[in-house]
Amino acid sequence: MKQKTTSLHEALDFHRHLIVADGHCDTVLAVARGSRKLGEYSESGHIDLIKMQEGGVRVQFFAAFIETLFKPFSSLTRALQLIDVFIAETESNCRRIAHGLNIKQISRELEKGKVVGILGIEGGEALNGDLAVLRVMYRLGVRFIGLTWNQRNMIADGVGEEITGGGLTGFGREVVREMNRLGMIIDLAHISEQGFWDVLRLSRDPVMVSHSNCRTLCEHPRNLNDEQIRELGRHNGVLGLSFVPKFLGQEGTGIKNFLDHVDHVAGLAGTECIGIGSDFDGIETTAAGLEDCRCYPAITAGLMERGYTESEIRGIMGENILRLMEIVIK
Q: What is the pTM of this model?
């Protein structure tokens, strides 16, 4: 990729015309714990509506993360509590944010200048082994599900169980098929490698890996190897590259390291499968220059300096995730 000099003014002007989409944050959990509100500025949090406006964020995936202490027996109850928090926050800030339900409605809300929040669940334990629960979750507005966190559940083994070599269970296969039928995005961010391959073979729709990076650049079990990245690209999926320092490299990482991961994926699978999955409000420490959701203009500037075209930058910053939504969310 040929480097070029880009002025801050040039980058900011281009950034203002982008639709920035972030494929993963844990802000709902922070709000549920009572530390802050989505509509109020917070020094401690990574995401709120004020910061999102400054950073140009237009589409934000909000994950209802099921904490370990609620697993397995209270997972469904906890998921419903977090869904209630998300709905209450979007309703109380309805002039600024809309709950995204289908692609036509999402497009209308974006045209009105609103942020669109996409609601999901991080941890398939919340389904309680019952497809009827999945269908009810859809009716409540859930549009993506991370099939596993790091542990094993009734759907599949998480990345923390990879020693078993396990992938999708029989119930997990039913979940994939039903999510395809309903029009829900399958998120493979925490699944075991065998589960990753099982889903790609089974799903008729492209999938998302919402917040992971490249294992070749950073040897971490949550990152994808080159073969996985290539195959995700072949299936028209999206890899949301994360800002988590331990996924980017050694401590002291920053935007340069993030852009190195962008370069690596682009060389393997092209830019069409690259998105952003910050993991904001789910991390205690942040990389330099990636401290909160106001960082996105700097990423745009970095991509311009590395020689990515305007079309490629629009895709990376949000349009690749929007394309996935157009295919899956009915």
A: 0.96
